[in-house]
Amino acid sequence: MTDQKLSSSATGSREPVGPWATGLAIFAAIVLMMSGAFGALEGFVAIVRDDFYVVTPHYLFGYDTTAWGWVHLLVGVVVAAAGFAIVAGYLWARIVGVIVAVLSALVNFLYIPYYPLWSMLIIALDVLVIWALCRYDREAADPDRY
């Protein structure tokens, strides 16, 4: 039998976590750090100069850009902090990372009329982050475990 763990409900062992899941978890943390920093910057721009973003006409959702600036600034700081905590290896950080990635996707969905391509890109990255953080298991990925 190899050192690779097999999935078994009777023994309670975990299924193997490959290098893709581990690498994508680190990638997810870095994406969270970067998108959080860019989101905070985007929010800062909307706060300082609220006429910078142009709203598309006849969109279902319409909000004040200064208010959206504060939302993006706060969400961006929390998202970046979660990314740093994930790199540090905390379990709670992965849970918070999934929650803030969902929140980030929702915020960017509502922000589509102001910055459509960027919002859709961040939503796609948030989906990848959610998958990577849900798939990764630090204990199962530890090569020194056996």
Automatic annotation (TrEMBL):
TM annotation in the entry:
21-47, 67-88, 95-112, 118-136
Every DUF7144 domain range: 25-137
Record keywords: Membrane, Transmembrane, Transmembrane helix
> Out of the domains of life, which is the source?
Bacteria
Query: Which InterPro entries does the record cross-reference, listed alphabetically?
Result: DUF7144
Tagged with keyword Transmembrane: yes
What is the protein's name according to its record? DUF7144 domain-containing protein
Q: Which organism is it from?
A: Actinocorallia longicatena
